[in-house]
Amino acid sequence: MRLKELVGIPLNGLTQPTRSDWIFALRTVSAGLIALLAAYALKLDHPQWAMMTVFIVAQPVAGMVLAKGFYRLLGTLAGGLAAIGITSLFGTNPWLLVTGLALWIGVCTLVSSLLRNPEAYGAALAGYSAMIISLPSFGQPHLVVDLAIARCAEIVIGIVCAGVTSRLILPKLAADAIISRLKRSILDLADYASGAFSGGDPASLAALQRKLITDAQTLAEMRTYARLEAPSFGTRAHPVRRTIGQLLWTLSAARALHTHAAPKNATLIPVRSELQAFVGELSATPGALDDTGPWVARLDAIATKAREAPATPAEPGEDRVGTITRLTIAADFAEALKQVMRGLDALRSPVAKPSRERRQPALVVHRDYHAAWRNAVRAALATLLVAAFWLTTKWSETAGTVILVAVVSSLFAARPDPVQSAWGFFTGTLLALPFAFLVGQIALPALPGFGWFTIFVVPIIVPAALGMANPRHVGVATAFAINFLAFLSPHQLMTYDPGPFFAGSASILVGILIAIGVFVVVVPADPWVTVERISEAMREDLARLCLHERIPRRSAFESLAYDRINQLMPQLQRTGRKGDPILGGSIAAVTVGLEVLRLRGAQLNSAVPHETVESIGNFLRGLARDLLFIGHGEPQTSTIAVARQYAASIADRSDRPEMLQVAASLRIIAAAMEDYPDFFAKGRG
Questions:
Q1: Is the pLDDT of residue 5 over 50?
Q2: Where would you find the membrane-spanning parts of this chain (predicted)?
């Protein structure tokens, strides 16, 4: 791979770096040079760590820099304290020392796997920081405190320089990024709905569906970053959290309308035509979301029209319950999209004081304990085995290998594809090696000084920073920048000494390759196993909705469903098109859950007859039984047939709106489960 390919310069259709990419790159390089100068002024032993820290925490958005820097500092402090404690206890016994460090790395990897970024990064860092601090003091335990203090000082300098420059030099703020991302998501929703209503290409719709879910994940992350940028964003945090669930609700309704179009349904045609015209205009109008007022009013009118459409069939033989069902979904789509637009307005015009409305629950996190324990065993075992080889052979350069095994096996353990992530890290490291040799071993020994350092390094590190701004190359580019500085090891006086340079470089590369081997060989992860665990959790969520005595709030279920789908996405990306039915099933599960909540609400409605309440209860118990116990390939019980039968009989007995809504909910649940029978069955294998 050539360097220009690494940084994202046009190659095979890749785009040029944008203005914001250049700002990010120049800001990051400037902060790195300032951090290095500060480390020189303080005469720190390893000034490269100050500059490396800038590139490690560098992010396009200011809040992301602050978050990553904050958790990097916490992780380093925890790792330093652990290094001091473990070295103080076992410093005289090398085998106990490396065993203690390996166990500590395993524990930190376990915790990291159960958390989300940036907290997960801080936990992983706490593990391998202890190794980075302890091993250089091997045989000299009295030095560990000085090493821990020095490492923390170097990292604090880098964090401060990165944080200050990201906030003061042409900053890109998370609060602005949230609004921009949400506007783009609304237009993407309009594109998806337009394609869904007009019979668009299924592959394009599936890709847009994935993008919308990914954007929802980004919105949730940006919410945390924005609150770090400014505490005043706290009043807008609730609209972001709520809008994430409404995005998912809108997508779920659009999918249902697409799957069950019924174009010849005379009663539905006017509403469907209005929706199709609406989303087409929305996606085609420049600056459409600058003023959402007219769009919200139109959506409100469409939703009202859908709810007030006549229940009597317009044509003989028309499916009455089917008509009501589709009108219900159309009204849901209009209402959900309206709420998303209101969420955008709430972000752009925040209230001066926190709302007195009852506080919404936080996003619920799905924690995969099985995967977390697997990651912990991998990291601890790999570190211990390589450390044992080091102690047995007494090969001094293997210490660097031990450190890199610990870093890679812990840092990338929780990634959806750790092998690919680690290989990208190896590629960037390998690319950095010749550049570091030319600058550090040839140029700087002949032309020392900070001025010459800047002249030689900036033309290399700026393209790398541009690559870090490109999501397609961020992993390789970040590894290149970090390891270029690690190999270079800049000091005020550089000397030509190729022996240690190549020995240290080789130990780093070997360490990365060993970690990759561990990911491949030791308890290899099967994405389908993880997918099945998350899918099973979603089915259990639905069963709890059916059976639990207390009816949860709609927003709480939306948060939970969002988190489950968010966890599925990275795993399904590894499976290609095979994962599309699972993703579609997970979206359908949102539809099922929302309709179950409607049925539970109907049970509490005094206008609903007692026998209907009992019928709903019987159906929900049967549905829960199917979700929990019906296995893949087994014939479904009569639950779906019962849903359709109940719906038809309810509609035959009464024209009251609350009764027709019960019938519609039953039909929607039946249709969703028929569309994705494999998702709603256990053990697809």
A1: no
A2: 21-42, 73-90, 96-115, 120-136, 148-170, 376-392, 398-415, 422-444, 450-469, 476-494, 500-523
